[in-house]
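Readers outside the structure-tokenisation community will struggle with the description of the input data as it stands. For illustration, here is how one protein appears when written out as sequence plus structure tokens:
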Amino acid sequence: MIDILDIVTLDNDIDYVVGAKTKIYDNFYYCLVNENNPEDLLICKSSDEVNLTEVTDSEVIKGLLPKFYESIREAKIIEKCLKMNENA
């Protein structure tokens, strides 16, 4: 199972942090952020949480943004990041 803040290594051997996750019907959607380059962002989907396929349809991505925001809030990502910075 892939969860928020997990690190996923894609076929290009680049590590991405799962920044957000949502499920719509039988598909999971992920917002992935390159661990070494935060400007490198991918939106992917998976029906089995193993095989990821990049989503490039701008209308689909636009519809996912509110759901990603909600998943970030529910996972308390901002609070966790602030706490990590305090302990650094």
